[in-house]
Amino acid sequence: MRYQISGKQIDIGSALQTHVEQELGGIVQKYAERPTDALVVFSRNAHEYVCESTVHLSTGLTAQAKAHATEIYAAFDSCGEKMEKQLRRYKRRLKDHHRERAQPVELSGAASYILASQEANDEDEPETLTPLIVAEMETKIPSLSVGEAVMQMELAGAPVLVFHNEKHGSINVVYRREDGNVGWVDPKSES
């Protein structure tokens, strides 16, 4: 597994890097069979250290965790505990579905745009209904089952996930509802 351990405006010593590699490697090895790479970023927020970690698995799924504490090692340890909990749940769900993904998740390219927001106190009507594009990026849309999509959304801590449904190949969306449940949008295909 490749590690990328860095700090945002703080120096990360070799002792901390070694600690992160050993601890995170042990956690990931315990619950995930084929991790590809890990990204760990330390930063400082006032008097606390913040640790953000992302682990990419060969199946295409991604686990993310974030924690903060007054000491940098404690921040990483808390982040590691959260990562371990996510990976344990991931592995349990795979067993519950009686399915291990043999092939990596297929990814297809798509354009992603960031649109300028309208000011809430702006009383003027916009001249056009065409939104102002602030940024344009490339994103990947995974090909997953609905259960895997829900699991990926929860692992990433995202409110919504767009995916190709493996069952019929169309674009689907899963999202976190306000009542705590998960919603699933599956458009009907026109035949």
Written overview of the protein:
- This protein folds into two domains: 2-96, Ribosome hibernation promotion factor-like (Double Stranded RNA Binding Domain, 2-Layer Sandwich); 107-185, Sigma 54 modulation/S30EA ribosomal protein, C-terminal domain (SHC Adaptor Protein).
- Helices cover 28% and strands 38% of the residues.
- The protein has three helices and nine strands, in the order βαβββαββαβββ.
- A hairpin with a 5-residue loop joins strand 8 (171-176) and strand 9.
- The longest helix is centred in the middle third of the chain and has 25 residues, at 72-96.
- Interacts with 100S ribosomes.
- Keywords: Cytoplasm, Ribonucleoprotein, Ribosomal protein, Translation regulation.
Shape: globular
Beta-strand content: 35-45%
The major beta sheet can be summarized as: 5 strands, mixed
Q: Span between N and C termini?
A: 46 Å
InterPro entries: HPF/YfiA_ribosome-assoc, HPF_long/plastid, RHF-like, RHF/RaiA, Ribosom_S30AE_C, Ribosom_S30AE_C_sf
GO cellular component, one term: ribosome
Family: Belongs to the HPF/YfiA ribosome-associated protein family. Long HPF subfamily.
Protein name: Ribosome hibernation promoting factor
Present the secondary structure layout.
Blueprint: E1 2-7, H1 14-31, E2 35-45, E3 48-57, E4 62-69, H2 72-96, E5 107-115, E6 133-144, H3 146-156, E7 160-165, E8 171-176, E9 182-185
Parallel strand pairs: 1-2, 6-7
Antiparallel strand pairs: 2-3, 3-4, 5-6, 7-8, 8-9
Helix pairs in contact: 1-2
